[in-house]
Amino acid sequence: MTQRLKEALETVDIRVIDHVIVGSEECSSLAELGHI
Questions:
Q1: Distance between CA atoms of 36 and 33, rounded to whole angstroms?
Q2: Domain MPN: where (predicted)?
Q3: For residues 6 and 15, what is the distance between their CA atoms, to the nearest angstrom?
Q4: Full-prediction pTM beyond 0.70?
């Protein structure tokens, strides 16, 4: 889903720099994990 959003936003010159997932115990940054 993140990749599809990133591609769609590129068509209007918006760059995704991170996608943060927040859970009940912790959060994860897709940029830190190397997915973006």
A1: 8
A2: 1-36
A3: 7
A4: no
